[in-house]
Amino acid sequence: MNITIMMSIISVCLGVLIAWIVSKYLRKNSETKISTEMITSGIALVVGAFPGTKEVILGLVAKYLEIGENVGTDYAMIACGVILILFGIYYDLNIRDKIYVLNMFGISVQKEISDEKNIKDLKLADYKVKESIIDIVGIYDNEMDEKRNEIIVGKIKKSAEAFANRSKGFKSGFTGMAPIPYTIYAGLFLANGDTRRYFEYHRQNSRYCELRKRKKLREVIPDIKIQYPEHPDEDAAEVVMALSVTRTVQDSDLVQFDQKDVIRIDTDETKDNLITTLAQLDKYAKFINDELEQLKNTYPKLRKVHLVAAIPSCLSLEIGKLFALNSHRLPQVISYHYVSSEQIKYLFGVIVSDGLETNRGKLVKG
């Protein structure tokens, strides 16, 4: 076989193989389709620019048309291919610099992160933000019933799973003002995702701020601690765990859980936006999850934990993630929604952790 033809076949096969490998490993998301096609097309142009590849095709055409044709290396074709490859790489890097944000709407006045003011406050590029919204405002009601709850948890599950798949391989973040039980529930479906940017709303100046990666120099991070009853009921099958971060959960709010042991987890101080860094967030979430696991050391017959919490949305979501990864180590956990204007403060709860996944998301009346 003519050496030129052999080199042509090898070049074509090599070009196809390289293009396939690039396509396989770069096209992880539909967002990267354009960049992948530019890169693979550029590779094909470069490979096709050498005479060995073109002679096979042009030689047949020349023979058919009975004309002579001299073919050399096509440097213009190589240049075009290189330009396409470079543009493809640039486009791919630019696409991957986008940030996906999941926003849970729980109140009607809540605004999107992509709102012009919020974008400016957070110093984000508008074209890089792709926001997904879970809006439960029209469905949610303080007097929750089974039907409403079923619609809400179904919507959260579907939207959170879709968000996790869509944002895979990209930067992703979370914000929201939805009830704590539903925010924890959303976290169950984001445990395997990359959601690590949190945008918390600061009421005092009506703006969003992102949690920092680390604390500032000389910044003091409030410690978190647990307090058990003086005389724990070791035979108890149910207990109350009260989490106080944004405000202190008062004993007077817990009258509906009368006769049950109350375990308190508190920070050294309680206030809005107490959590300012990811390290602090991780510390608090791990502490809460670990203490829930260790409750059985004090309560060997424990089956159920009534979780009442005054915590920010970022901590709610991180707790949900940990619950998803440790569900078989935990007792059943019911997270309750607080309504200050009602005589019974915790009107309903949602099962957010259970050994049986079919129980997760079920409504529990307060």
Describe the structure.
Helix content is 40%, strand content 20%. The strands form two sheets. The protein has a seven-stranded mixed beta sheet with strand order 6-8-7-9-10-11-12. The protein is built from nine helices and twelve strands. Helix 7 packs across helix 9. By secondary structure, the chain is an alpha/beta fold. The termini are far apart.
Short description:
This protein is α/β, with parallel strands linked by helices and 366 residues long. 40% of the residues lie in helices and 20% in strands. A seven-stranded mixed beta sheet has the order 6-8-7-9-10-11-12. A five-stranded mixed beta sheet has the order 2-1-3-4-5, with helices on both faces.
The count of strands amounts to: 12
* Widest β-sheet, arrangement of strands: 6-8-7-9-10-11-12
Q: Name the overall outline.
A: elongated
Class by SSE composition: alpha/beta
